[in-house]
Amino acid sequence: MEINIGISNEHRKAIAEGLAKVLADSYMVYLKTHNYHWNVTGELFHSLHEQFEEQYTELAEAIDVIAERIRSIGYRAPGSFMEFSEITSIEEDTDDPNALEMVKRLALDNEAILRTARSVLPACEEAGDEATIDLITQRLDVHSKTAWMLRSHLE
């Protein structure tokens, strides 16, 4: 069935491609945060274990919202690790970082999501896609706060 939601096919495609990158970045940070939750050690264990759990739980919900927005504008949401790894800006760990390095990496990763999310806004604004603008605005708020909280551990 043809989609006629008041956003051109060209704009919907650009928005969906941008959201797919936000989805991929969010999923990769979700995986990394969950890994760190399991593997953090040291004197900050308890506080970081809980903080990481809050963060990956929030990311799990956000991933669903982002994917559903892609679907609602008529595109397939990427859903495999291979697809995510091809379009993400987030680097995977190849080592076993200590607690403060975990915090630093997650702070940088949340800032990366912020940059990716901001890159979608021009297409949304041009298309008048207020629903996606709202979603992106919410993600900007969450990731700005998360990055700040993580950076605060490093001061």
UniProtKB/TrEMBL annotation:
Q: Which PROSITE patterns match?
A: DPS_1, DPS_2
A GO molecular function term, named singly, is: ferric iron binding
> What residue stretches are annotated with the Ferritin/DPS domain?
17-155
Q: Which Pfam families does this chain map to?
A: Ferritin
Which InterPro entries does the entry mention? Answer: DPS_DNA-bd, DPS_DNA-bd_CS, Ferritin-like, Ferritin-like_SF, Ferritin_DPS_dom
Superkingdom as given in the UniProt entry: Bacteria
CDD domains for this protein = DPS
Entry's family note: Belongs to the Dps family.
Sorted alphabetically, which PANTHER family does this protein's record hold? DNA PROTECTION DURING STARVATION PROTEIN, GENERAL STRESS PROTEIN 20U
Name-wise, this protein is DNA starvation/stationary phase protection protein
- Source organism per entry reads Rhodohalobacter mucosus
Give the taxonomic lineage as stored in the record.
Answer: Bacteria, Pseudomonadati, Balneolota, Balneolia, Balneolales
